[in-house]
Design goal:
The protein has 341 residues and is α+β, with helices and mostly antiparallel strands. Helices cover 22% and strands 26% of the residues. The strands form 2 sheets. Strands 6, 7, 8, 9, 10, 11, 12 and 13 form an 8-stranded mixed beta sheet that branches. β7 and β8 form a beta hairpin. α2 crosses α3 and α3 runs antiparallel to α8.
Length: 341
C-alpha cells in the first residue's frame, strides 16, 4: 500500500486581507487526480470563518498539482487548492472563487504578482541597510549583480518549483525597488488563473520559511516614500478583445469600467490609496483613465494589441499585490459583460 501527502490549501476569513492556510492529508493508493480528492473539514472558528459553537467548515478541492519540494523526500506529494464551503455545503462568504462567472472559460487572465522579500531579523527589505536607505530605485529593475539583485537564490528556487509543479509561470524579474520581485502567471479561464496565483504564492511563502525571509504583499510597505509600491496587474481578454479588429471595441470595453471605479477599488486590495496616488506609474485612486501604452492609466492598452490590428488584451493596473485574484477576476468579468459590443 503506497502513501501520498496531500496539502489542502485554502483562504481564511481575515479582513481586509485573507491569508493562506493549509494542512496535510495522508491518502492510500492515491491516483493523483482531482476527482479522487475528498472533501475535508477544518475548524473555522480558528480562521474567522465560523463560531466556536458550530465551527465546521468544508474544503472542496478545485485544483491539484505536484508538490515538488515534498516529492524530493520520496513520498508522492500534491498541492490541493480548495474552496471553502459552510457546514451545509454552500460557498462560504469568504469564498471569492465561487463568485466568478466564467463557466465557459472565455476569459483569459495573466496576473503580474509583485512582492517584497523582507529579512526576518531586520524586518527590512533585502538590500536595505539597518539605518536609512540603499541607493535610489532605478538600478534594481531587471538588474544583475550582488549590489542590485537581492534574494535571487530564493526567486530562482521558487520559479523552478512552480515549473515542476506544472504552474504556467511565464516569467520573473527583479522590480524597481531593492528586494522587490515579480512573477507572472497566465491561464485560459479565470478560476484556474486564480488557482495558480494562490498556489504560486503558497510555494513562495513556504520556500521563504527556510531562508529566514518573509513575503510582504502590502501594496506600499515603505510608506510615504519615493519607493514604488507593489501591484498585481491584471491582464485579461475575452473573445471580443481577442478578435475585435477595431479600436471602437476596445474603447467601448474600456469605457465600461468608468462607472464602476468604486466597485473595483473595493476588491483591488487594502490600503490601495497609499499606492494609487497618480505617481510611480499609477492613476489616482478616485479617477479613471485608459490609453495605449500608458502605465499611468487605470487601464493600459498594450501596444502589441494595437500592432496586431486591435486584437489582444487589456491590462488593469489598479489591483494591488495583496488583492485576491479570484475577486479581481470576478469584478473585471462582471464589468466587461456590461459592455455593449
Amino acid at each position: 500500500m503506497s502513501k501520498a501527502k496531500l496539502e489542502y490549501i485554502w483562504l481564511d476569513g481575515y479582513k481586509p486581507t485573507q491569508s493562506l492556510r493549509s494542512k496535510t492529508k495522508i491518502e492510500n493508493n492515491f491516483s493523483g487526480k482531482l476527482e479522487d480528492c475528498d472533501i475535508w473539514s477544518f475548524d473555522g472558528s480558528s480562521t474567522q470563518q465560523a463560531p466556536g459553537g458550530s465551527s465546521d467548515c468544508q474544503l472542496k478541492p478545485v485544483y491539484i498539482c505536484k508538490d515538488p519540494e515534498r516529492s524530493l523526500l520520496g513520498t508522492p506529494s500534491y498541492l490541493v487548492m480548495c474552496e471553502v464551503l459552510d457546514s451545509d455545503g454552500n460557498p462560504h462568504e469568504s469564498n471569492g472563487r465561487a463568485t466568478i462567472e466564467d463557466d465557459d472559460n472565455d476569459f483569459w487572465f495573466g496576473f503580474e504578482q509583485e512582492y517584497f522579500l523582507y529579512d526576518l531579523k531586520t524586518n527590512l527589505p533585502l538590500g536595505f541597510p539597518a539605518n536609512g536607505y540603499p541607493a535610489p530605485q532605478g538600478q534594481y529593475y531587471c538588474s544583475v549583480g550582488a549590489k542590485n539583485a537581492y534574494g535571487r537564490h530564493i526567486i530562482e528556487e521558487h520559479l523552478e518549483y512552480c515549473l515542476q509543479a506544472g504552474l504556467n509561470v511565464e516569467g520573473i524579474n527583479a522590480e524597481v525597488a531593492a528586494g522587490q520581485w515579480e512573477f507572472q502567471c497566465f491561464a485560459k479561464g479565470a478560476k484556474q488563473a486564480g488557482d495558480e496565483i494562490w498556489v504560486a504564492r503558497y510555494l513562495l511563502e513556504r520556500i521563504c520559511e527556510k531562508h529566514g525571509v518573509w513575503v510582504n504583499y502590502h501594496c506600499k510597505p515603505l510608506g510615504d516614500t519615493d519607493w514604488n509600491g507593489s501591484g498585481m496587474h491584471a491582464n485579461f481578454s475575452n473573445t471580443a478583445l481577442r478578435t475585435a479588429g477595431n479600436k471602437e471595441t476596445y474603447d467601448i470595453i474600456c469605457q465600461a469600467f468608468e462607472p464602476f471605479v468604486k466597485e473595483h477599488i473595493e476588491v483591488y486590495g487594502a490600503d490601495n490609496h497609499l499606492r494609487l496616488t497618480g505617481k510611480h506609474e499609477t492613476q489616482s485612486i478616485d479617477q479613471f483613465s485608459y490609453g495605449v501604452s500608458d502605465r499611468g492609466a487605470s487601464i493600459r492598452i498594450p501596444i502589441a494589441a494595437v500592432q496586431k490590428g486591435w486584437k489582444g488584451w487589456l491590462e488593469d493596473r489598479r489591483p494591488n499585490s495583496a488583492a485576491d485574484p479570484y475577486k479581481v477576476a470576478a469584478r473585471i468579468i462582471k464589468t466587461v459583460k456590461t459592455a455593449k459590443v
